[in-house]
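Q: Got a minute? One more chain.
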Amino acid sequence: MFNSKNNLLFKIPVIFMIIFFVLPLLLTVVWSVFERTMFWMEPGFTLFSYENFFFSSRLENFLSSMFHSSISVVCAFFIGFPIAIFIRRRVKKVAQHRVMLLFILPFMVSEIIRIFALRPILSRNGVLNSLLMDFNFIDTPISAFVFTPTGVVIGEIVSFLPFMIFSTFLALEAIPNYIFEVCADLGVNRRRMFKDILLPLAAPGLFAGSVFIFVNGIGIALIPTILGGPGSVNAGLIATQAIIALDFPLAMAVSAIMMFTLMGLLYIGHRLFNLTKLLEPIS
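A: Always. Here it is, folded:
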């Protein structure tokens, strides 16, 4: 009786994931080849939605959003990796998780509020320009912080940086303390420790955080809508516009392309770094 209850408790989340995660993803691919009707779509097989994506300006917008998301990933690496190292190496063990909680707290606020709150800071007459002018770094306000691709990149970094810090910290947390003690005893300098120890061992966490930032950067429509200019269009915004235009097969095709992009990145990351090591102690 006890074993049967355990099996049931295990099957419930599996069934839940299949119904609400795996099945919708499979249906997304199937619906992407359906034929468009006036208000919905009907069964059939056509690649018109994919042609409509790849042979139009949508592909250029998609590639542009990928480029901007790549910049966000690089910036998040240079900001988030040192923070994760500092928490792992300099903060006391009992306080490390409390410090990590500080980076998670902003996500308890609605995403649209967090992104919209950046506009008074990044605008021409905003807080950032005022500070730069007060310290005499600039003479006139900078307009490139908002309603431009730069604003989108800043929004992505601010929105998703905690995920880079969190995933990297998980990888660093698996490194036993004696490794740092041995390096100190052998007189290993900081540059060598960073290059030969911290960076390789933290690679799975860095890749996981990079994939999260990259995929969300090309998929979340709020950031280019609120902080980007007229040319700031990502895959999420393309899908949203297709839904508004009642072109559901195109929306499904864009979603399928994003899904295959994510699966490809995860496959490459697993082959290079074995992402299962992220939650395993390092021996």
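A: The mean pLDDT is 86.
Q: Perfect, thanks.
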